Amino acid sequence: MKEEKNMAKKKNSYEHYHFITWILVLAGIATFAYLFLKIVNFVIPKDGLVKPPDDIYQTEYSSDKSGYSISYPKDWMTDTSQTTPADIIKSPDGNMNVAVQQLVGDKRLLSRTGIIPVMKEIKDSYAIDKNYTLDTFEDKIWYGLPSLHAVGTFKDKDAVWDFEESAIFFGSEIYNLRANWKNDSDVAVIQSIISSFKLNGYDSRDEEEANEALASVLELSEVRNFQKDVFENNQSKFSISVESSPVDEPQLAQEPYYVIAVAEFFPDHRTTFNRYRVGKNNEKIYRYDAVNDSWDRLEL
């Protein structure tokens, strides 16, 4: 009886939030994670660019634990409690909300081919729930990273909500981003919030070539495994950044390449895991050998 009362209390506290169950497989053991949120979710701008927020968006939430930052209007409210599997930002009237959820641990994400079945599971999760009507569901590129993007409507009790949702694959991690709003809501406000979203530790650029170089290095199995180890150890923060580029250093234009640094940040110091040089069209990737001061080409 006590357990039933606790469940009822939690349901009343979050009656506007429903979650689609998505099964993740970890080393052959099925574990459950609430990935796709119904009324709490998020929007990726169509051009994929992070734009500076307007002056009214002066409140910034940055989660070191979940590895992202986002700005939103001062009068919006946040819910980062342990009772919900996502960080939720909602408007004062409750007609708009944005949510961010980080998922890690699925070993299939450590390989490019492993992402494919994960993407299929995400798409199937929509088909299972008959309250959803999808207008579009497509693969997209977010700053060089693979992502899935869904747009449509869903029913919650007697109300119909619009939603736009993306799942961004950041190496061994997935960031689920979604926005929900009612028909008469100011969608421009939601878009402004979403456009401020950034992944901590990912040096995304406006240059398409730089983002492609970052993504190419992030796809390396050794980098994915390192990222996973950093997260599981929970002692430092993973980082991948552009250290030099043809844009920053014109002398590289004759032989254009990007130098990508993969590192982990501790509270009092930084440790570099490896440096990589990515050539034109990402066809060649080299790892820096500090002992011999040379660049060794990797077999891709």
- How many runs of DSSP E, i.e. beta strands? 17
Average pLDDT reading: 76
> In CATH, what is the class of the largest domain?
Alpha Beta
CATH architectural designation of the largest domain? 3-Layer(aba) Sandwich
Uncertain segments? 1-54
Separation of termini?
58 Å
Number of domains: 2
| Helix fraction by DSSP (H/I, runs of at least 4) | 10-25%
CATH topology of the largest domain: Protein Transport Mog1p, Chain A
Would you list the SSEs in sequence order as H and E? HEEEEEEEHEEEEHEHHEEEEE
Q: How would you concisely characterize the structure shown here?
A:
This protein has 300 residues and is α+β, with helices and mostly antiparallel strands. It has helices spanning 2-13, 112-128, 187-195, 208-218, 221-233; strands spanning 19-26, 29-37, 59-63, 68-72, 77-79, 87-90, 96-104, 132-142, 145-156, 159-170, 173-181, 198-199, 237-244, 258-265, 270-278, 285-289, 294-297. The protein has 2 domains: 2-199, 3-Layer(aba) Sandwich (Protein Transport Mog1p, Chain A); 208-297, no CATH class.
